[in-house]
Amino acid sequence: MVHVEARPQAGGAVPGVGRCGAEAGRVGAAGDGAAARVRGAEGVRAKGLSGNSVGLLGNAVIGISTVAPVYCLTSTLGPTVGEVGLQMPAVFLAGFLPMLLVAFAYRELNKAVPDCGTSFTWTVKAFGPRIGWMCGWGLVIATIIVLSNLAGVATSFFYLLLGELTGSGSIAALDDSKPVHVLTCLAFIGVATAISYRGMTATKGVQYALVGLQLLVLAVFVAMAIGKARSGDLPGSIDFSWTWVNPFAVQSFAAFTAGLSLSIFMFWGWDACLTVNEETAGSEKTPGRAALLAMVVLVGSYLLTAVAAQMFSGVGEKGLGLGNPDTSDNVFAALADPVMGTALGVLLFVAVLASAAASLQTTFIPVARTVLAMSSYQALPPAFAKVHPRFKSPGLATIAAGVATGVFYAVMTFLSENVLIDTIYALGLMICFYYAITAFACAWYFRRELRSSVRAALFKGVFPVLGGLLLAAVFGKTLYDMWDPAYGTGSSVFGVGSVFVIGVGLLLVGVAIMMVMQRRSPAFFRGEVLTRSTPALVVAD
Fold first, then answer.
1. 280 pairs with which residues across the strands?
2. Which terminus of the chain is more solvent-facing, meaning fewer CB atoms within 10 Å of its CB: N or C?
3. Whose CA is closest to 237, among 135, 178, 319?
4. What one-character DSSP code corresponds to residue 133?
5. Which distant-in-sequence residues (6+ apart) come within 8 Å of 390 by Cβ?
6. What are phi and psi of 14, to 5 degrees?
7. Domain count of the chain?
8. In a domain, 461, yes or no
9. Whole-angstrom Cα distance, residue 424 to residue 403?
């Protein structure tokens, strides 16, 4: 019989270790003995979060909601067509591949170390405290940027929807007033913070309704767009072709990488499924399964919508064509009435607003729980480790994320909208940064197991490394492109593109904060709080 034991390769006893740490190292076999599970949770601490609050479906819904599929589609269909033309579905598939490979890494790491710190905790255990700290910082700062952008989008669509419902252009124009826009944006942030503060039960209930609405409206849009395109009555409509899913048909490598960067952004956020692992029933397996389920739903939605939109509108640069620069930043606003009619078209505006608002609310989940974990392990000030006694949520961490988001958006909006836009362009750099490190951490953490079976070699080694290399390549190419002042809004600092300065600058801010914390919490950075370890297989008769 094969027995498996999680044996730490470094580090020692940790005082105050919670339930997960107390169970680490237990010897046992999974199932009927044909496969075995490795426990690797040495030093992992319980945070006091509400356990068993979310099931498989609820967890997958959180992942889908965080990605905000309808919002991503309306803002990305146009720019992607502008880069790759009819090969948009192929690029969506190409962007899905590295995310799927990284999702395998997340699933395997979560089985061994189910901790709400996810990327932070896992990379600390694989590579040590400093790389782990920077990985956590990449997740936190990316999420703050996205939260501010989502709040702005929700605000704009709120007034656009009011204008559609009332038929009043003056109401829609209220969004053009900076004071009105910022105040409404802060109100959205406040509501989202309050819902997240009340814990997973409140979050889950809101998300079922909002995600269900998004997917239903998308299904109606796809069906009506394909139906009208096949009728042959539309001048711009085109027939479907399987060449649309051929990535090698893209006209140039530069266009392909530009489209791929947009596609990767469209899938970002699915890892929110893993940050609620300590609150999920079956914390070792359910979050990983939920992440894969969310990815399948997303790629299916994106492909169907891309095909339907191209069949209905074509990729021309005039009229309803998806390549029209005048409508590329909000495709659904242009297609709502032509595809769904005046009565149903307003539902598309509602869906975009619901998508942005839902994602705004769930995106608080990963940042708050990452900050909670970092604080619990003394990588951030201890105040952020407090969990609300009634709601069992990271209360102070959630409030801090809300305040940071509101201040960031308000200051940037009044200071310079170009800087705000360039900050959003720099987001892709942060996403590739922490995803790639996490993927490499998986292979390194399980390196002693890779020869134990074909499955272990593929899902713990080959797939994560391949996903990490793909994202690292996108990171490098994006960094190179950002140096050009023409990238983003076209502004520069001493001849260097402002997007490059912002992206690298935000990472350097993380380095500076880490150095301060190293002086305040030396035990964490000496590896005494969260131990660096590697599961090792021990085979016995």
1. 54
2. C
3. 319
4. H
5. none
6. -120, 120
7. 1
8. no
9. 18
Contacts of 406 (CB under 8 A, 6+ apart): 151, 185, 186, 189, 190
Phi/psi for 395 (5° steps) reads -55, -55
The residue type of 397 is A
CB crowding 24-55: b at 16 or more within 10 Å, else e? beeeeeeeeeeebbbbbbbbbbebbbbeebbe
Asked if the model's pLDDT at residue 24 lies above 80, the reply is no
Domain containing residue 223: CATH number: 1.20.1740.10
Q: What is the pLDDT of residues 169-223, one digit of tens each?
A: 888 888 888 899 999 999 989 988 888 887 666 566 677 888 889 999 999 999 9
The predicted-structure confidence for 337-381, as pLDDT tens digits, reads as follows: 899 988 888 888 888 888 888 888 788 888 888 999 999 999 999
- Neighbouring C-beta atoms of residue 101, cutoff 10 Å: 22
The contacts of residue 314 (CB under 8 Å, 6+ apart) are 236, 237, 238, 320, 321, 322
Q: Is the pLDDT of residue 389 over 70?
A: yes
Q: Is 354 a member of any domain?
A: yes
The helix/strand/coil state of 280 is strand
pTM above 0.85, yes or no: no
**Taking CA 381 as the corner, what is the angle to CA 378 and CA 383, rounded to the nearest 5 degrees?**
110
Q: Indicate the Cα dihedral angle 445, 289, 280, 528, nearest 10°.
A: 10
395 domain-assigned: yes
Which domain does 132 fall in, by range? 50-406
Cα–Cα distance for residue pair 69/174, rounded to 1 Å: 26
| Predicted confidence (pLDDT) per residue in 102-147, tens digit | 999 999 998 888 888 899 999 999 999 999 999 999 999 988 888 8
For residue 225, being part of any structural domain is answered with yes
Mean pLDDT of 241-252: 89
